[in-house]
Amino acid sequence: MTRLIVAAGGGGDAVAAAMLHAALYGEEDQAVILTYAWDRLLIDPLPGPRRPADFTGLERLTPDVWSVPAQARPIEPAGSTLPRLAAELPATFALLDPYQGAVGLTRQLESLVDHVRPASIDLLDVGGDILAQGDEPTLKSPLADALTLAACCRLNEPVRLLVAGPGLDGELPPEAMTSVLGPVVHMLTAEDAAAISAVLEWHPSEATGLLAATARGVRGTCEIRDAGLPVPLTDESPAVHEVDLDDALSRNRLARAIMSTADLDEAEAYSREVCGYSEIDYERHKARWLSEQQPANLDPSTSPPQLAQFESEARTRGATHTTFRRITEALGLSGAQRDELRQLLIARRPEQYEAPLWRIADEAELQPEPLPGCPSP
């Protein structure tokens, strides 16, 4: 039978959806993952989500929905992780196009449900920012989740909302959503994380990376994003909670405001009104800023000392782990240099790689290595 999983925020939520499908339903059932093509700027230099016209090689599933097969390609300069996900994961990836607002997303959902007749529909959010009220100071990306929540609430089909890894996206602390989190549906394990381990070797998602790391038993405090947000990695982090869909809608003021929107610009305007900003505006500003920057050179002879300084400062802030995205930006490198830096660091200090995170070195490890022929201090 077919299971439909809607990745609430796109990006890493789509990867987590593949892990969740394997954990909950096994290999017997087929997975259709409905997701935005909305990646971070280090993957896609264009702000906002991509639409079907931004790809070649898509396959039409219904009059309103396209799938993204492995041979699809984003049209430059756009970028997308979806074709590679389709090549490496046993799922059909269908494209959510939010440019016709919540009304258009609902139409896509209805069309896909009529086509595949799924045995179940899950709406998955990693971190829990789909439960935000809209005025939280740490909230950064409410629009994508609010649109999928609004569309799923408009759908005349039963939808189960699942929140995996409460707090792991750094947008809402776990205690802010405790009152609305329902029962634990599943506690993710290292075996579950193995289903996406190869993907997380290259995919830049931080929240889903943290989810997989905690499923493997990593604990501590991880710094993420360019701002270095500290995210606790606890025994509760690998939990997948069910949440009442109506309770989520009653909390999410932006989702309620955009229920009848018919285009993305209108939804963005509501985001500015309800939350005080739009995440696409943030991406526009950052894209302009990045275009004006001269990225630092990745010099293997100088990067380790720079990393040692970063690790020393991170340790004083209480961090035990960080992401490669965080290191890349902290060292002044471009997103295109992330993978090269990652390979360099893992090759030099494999003992600090706790997949897919980087463990912050302790004080003893930060001591400079003696030159050949010289005694250790």
Give an account of the 3D structure.
With 377 residues, the protein is an alpha/beta fold. The chain has a seven-stranded mixed beta sheet, sandwiched between helices. A five-stranded mixed beta sheet has the order 12-11-14-16-15. α1 packs parallel to α6, α3 crosses α4 and α12 packs across α13. The radius of gyration is 21 Å and the shape is globular.
In the predicted model, the low-confidence regions spanning at least 5 consecutive residues are: 370-374
Main beta-sheet strand count, sense and barrel state: 7 strands, mixed
Approximate strand percentage: 15-25%
Give the neighbour order of strands across the main sheet: 7-2-1-8-9-13-10
Distance between the amino and carboxyl termini: 64 Å
